[in-house]
Design a protein that fits this description.
With about 240 residues, this protein is of the alpha+beta class. Helix content is about 30%, strand content about 15%. The strands form 2 sheets. The chain has a 6-stranded antiparallel beta sheet. A two-stranded antiparallel sheet has the order 4-5.
Length: about 240
């Protein structure tokens, strides 16, 4: 994918989670719809280069005592289609999860129910979660079945290592050295700008009608940021 294709989908307004109780039902629907639209556009771009999107995000509750609350974002990385078409990637992901005690919900009904109910359990807000998705739900992806893994972050799983998704992806791609984002950092800002420009040019034909003003060269497109590595994120 031109420019690497690793991007962040970031809500413009501050929100720690797509399930934030501070969001009105209208705002929550709009935010989730825009996220889905960007994922679909990215999926189309990646498909043109024989790749599929692998995305993940972490949502945290306001007022939680066990963690600081940040600004939620969805990381999206193109993965070669032939690498995930056989389904072995699921074994890698689940196996790496079991090594650290993560138990995922991966059945569609369970995942759908969690997000449709707003992450609520009775009257208690249970909005802390990790969501990883390969492909895009509702899209034909050839031999790749769209699959979502959900990890509800409570109890023994409340503390989540934010580097774990990257480490697991590096293992899946058989590039263990890239588990450290510093290895992926470009040597100069000029290189970063050039790759960002390459990606924007490639993405433009797929971005029609998605997000905000695509003609504004001084800001990222509709809350989307090109990514060449991940900020140094501490584990929770």
């Amino acid at each position: 994918v031109p420019g690497g294709g690793h991007v962040l989908i970031v809500p413009i307004g501050h929100t720690p989670s797509y399930l934030s109780p501070a969001l009105s039902p209208t705002d929550a629907h709009s935010l989730n719809a825009e996220r889905a639209a960007y994922l679909q556009a990215l999926s189309a771009l990646y498909a043109a280069h024989d790749c599929v999107p692998l995305s993940w995000e972490i949502g945290r509750s306001e007022g939680a005592t066990h963690t600081r609350v940040g600004h939620t974002h969805t990381q999206v990385v193109p993965v070669p289609r032939d690498l995930v078409s056989g389904g072995n990637w699921k074994e890698v992901w689940e196996g790496k999860g079991r090594e650290v005690g993560y138990e995922f919900v991966s059945d569609r009904e369970g995942v759908r129910a969690f997000f449709e109910e707003g992450g609520k359990k009775g009257k208690e807000r249970v909005a802390d979660y990790f969501r990883m998705q390969i492909g895009v739900e509702g899209e034909a992806a050839g031999e790749v079945e769209a699959t979502t893994f959900l990890l509800v972050l409570r109890g023994a799983q409340a503390r989540f290592n934010m580097q774990w998704p990257r480490q697991t992806l590096a293992a899946l791609l058989n590039t263990p050295e890239r588990a450290d984002w510093r290895v992926c950092a470009r040597a100069t800002e000029d290189e970063e700008r050039e790759e960002a420009a390459q990606f924007k040019a490639a993405f433009q034909p797929f971005a029609a009608g998605v997000g905000g003003d695509d003609d504004d060269d001084d800001s990222d497109e509709g809350g989307e940021e090109g990514g060449h590595g991940v900020p140094d994120e501490e584990g929770y």
